[in-house]
Amino acid sequence: MLKKMIVFLFAVAFFMPAHAELKVDIIAGAVEPISVAIQKIEVVGNIPKDVAEMVRDVVDADLKSTGLFRIVSRDALPEFVEMGKMPDFKLWDAIKAQVLVQSKLTKMSGNRYSLEFYVWDVGGREQIEAQDLVASQKSARRLAHNMADAIYERLTGEVGYFDTQIVFIAETGPIDNRNKRMAIMDQDGYGMRYLSTPDDFVMSPHFSPNMQTIVFLSYYNDDPSVWTLDLNTGAQRKLGNFEGMTYAPRFSPDGKKIALSMVKRGISHIYEYDIDTKKLRQLTFGNSLNTSPSYSPDGKKMAFNSDRSGNQQIYVLDLETGDVERITYGAGRYATPAWSPDGQFIAFTKIADDTFYIGIMTPQGRNEKILAGGWYMEAPSWAPGSRRVVYYETEKAFDDLERISHIRSVDITGQNIYEIELPDEINGVEPTWSPKLP
């Protein structure tokens, strides 16, 4: 994992006439993609040709995957403009390019690369972004994701999410004898690696805010309990020896506590575990099933699902007063709430009329919007910036032994469902999106 990336931002100003700012409207349900022309990358120093091509390909793919950008065909590019020279904007107008991206990859001392890039507003005839990113050679792919993040952020005003990872459960084998291993990959599916052994049966992985730890459910020694995994050392630790089964863990926004569900005498309640003091605090009470806790980004509230009203619905708990409010009243059952990083939405799973749905609503339960629906889908998790939701969908199959699960993400407008490609024979379930990498 990359320990540090140095980013330099420098302004390059030109005296140009005032014009409307180039920015994509990402609130609308359907938008006309901005056309982006990405030039071939200039290379300085002894850099393998495939490295520069890889960087360009990754930036192309990242931007295209959002549905907000149209990448101009490379065959249509009219000229090659060297870094530091003014483009002939009329030529780029002619191919209907709205944005031009120039870049240069330089080999530096100490096995490092520098990736310098300029972003031009073709219609406005001005440079709107200029950055120089530095990282180790083995992190060249991260340089590309960071470049894509910078372009995305400049053109949308939103937080980028390309330099992130997804932890999930990789399933193999027939449905009646599935092997469940925890795995991690880049948000585009690259570099998947396993975090647990074939002998482990694990579920429900979630990142800590600082990306150093994953909390998950393990059935090690036939004892279903919450464990933690240190991503730096690989060390695994059982959270504690409690009186009942523990499951559905989530970190608090400050990383100092873990919310989890515990089953005692057939009743499931939500508890909060203090990592420093190793003490548990019970948060829900009564004779109902309470699970799937999710903190609000300020750590003051918690969404969860409960059957206390007779069927499964979503509630919000005020962690300071203990007050609980039901927020879902639509037809069907609601589960697996996930609070968005900006606090504006709660994602959920809904089951109605024999169909599963992924949706979002406000923390007050208003403005419910369905983003995707299918035979079986569950486990929504947010990208940084609160623009996209990742989830998994299982296809209905004639033969249950061949049932296939996919990991997909969708925009909060309900547009542009994107499937993350997994290696052959792997079914992906229970994905969780990381914060931006450190």
Main beta sheet strand tally, sense and closure: 7 strands, mixed
Structural class: mainly beta
Radius of gyration over all CA atoms, rounded: 23 Å
Number of DSSP strand runs: 31
* Helicity, as a percent range: under 10%
> How far apart are the first and last residues' alpha carbons, in Å?
9 Å
State the helix count.
3
Question: Which assembly state applies to the chains in this document?
Answer: single chain
What sort of overall outline do the alpha carbons produce when their principal axes are compared? globular
Poorly predicted runs are 1-20
In percent terms, what proportion of residues is strand?
35-45%
Average pLDDT value?
91
